[in-house]
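Justification of resources, computational component.

The compute hours requested in this renewal are based largely on the per-chain cost of generating structure records like the one below. Each record pairs the submitted sequence with a full structure-token output. That output is archived, and it is also reused by downstream analysis tasks.
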Amino acid sequence: MSNNNTIPVSLDALAVGRSSTSPFITVFSQVNPTTNDVNYPIQTRWFNQMAETEYILTAYSVVGEVKTAIWQPINASQVAAAETLTGNSGGAVAVDGSNNINVVGDTTTINIVGNPGTHTLTASTTGSIATLYTENAGTATPSGGNLNVLGTNGITTSGAGSTVTITSTNGQIMTGVVPDAHTAPGTTPVVPNSSGNIIITGGQVAAGTTANVIRTNSLAANTYTVQIQRSQAVGSSTVGDNGVSHFNSGVFSVDANGFVDLSTSFYTTGFFTPTLQFSGSSAGITYAAQNGKYTLIGNLVNYQLSFVLTSKGGAVGIAQIAGLPIAAGGPNTLSGNPQLGTVTFADYVNVFSTSGQSFLTLEQTTTGMGYTSLTNANFADNSSVSVAGFYYIS
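The structure output for this chain reads:
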């Protein structure tokens, strides 16, 4: 450091901070002066021996009781001094009359805070800025400041200004279902519940309720019921009278394809083989022919049977026609009038069923209305019997 006894070039008061009555002082250093180098009088010159740059102390600045020095480069061609700041747009911004450039935020999203003591400007957001976006599956991270919002499966997105609009590519998205009718607390339309579901149920409705066999109805909130109408108890070709009928399982049956038929326990037909027995025994009895056919309707069996003997065997006792397809039930019944060949009897012969038995009994009747059972003694080896009749099973 050396002293310079040159007479001051300005007579301005020291308080103005623009000149000094002290001789010029030159400071030699290996670095440039900073705003913290305040222990020098105005007009002090500073020479950086390493960079070969020279500065002069032109003034002081006091902000909040903090004093800073304003050093100006003497040779601008040798010093890269920042005289402007340039942003993304708007052009270069130069210093104002106080050699200052204001850096401010919009106070809505960005805020700038200055600290004169540390000569620091701090930029911060006024809230949290999202850096991760979590979806139903996976996590999206912005790339290059951009986050793609894309649609799929009937959804598309479009952007305009600051708005992203999500729309359906299939037209209006369904927000509810309108039923044929509704009964509170049911609604029309039926809207999804908090889980986004509409509950669809099935049910029936009384005959004559609707003009259609099937209708939709809402009986509770968020519930859509498909109802099938029960049929009217009338024969009608009117749609409103038609519907679902419930069948008596004892009379009707429904197969795997939904076809309805009379139940075999109510209606059936078939063949059987009639036999002759005497008090339950058929020992030695042989036949030239045996035929039997029956039809069951409800609790009534209609039958036709015939047989021709080649031998009546050696059994003895009451004559019985066995082999009935279904055992008789209910009261003992006069079952039919047989046609007999080579069989001896009195005036008339009738056939009777016996409850709980699978045979018929042959009874001869006299004109005095006396009944006696035919026995083996009434039959020959070539006897024949033919009878048509009915009996009850319950």
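The longest strand covers residues 379-392. The chain has five domains: 2-78, 84-125, 133-168, 181-241, 269-392.
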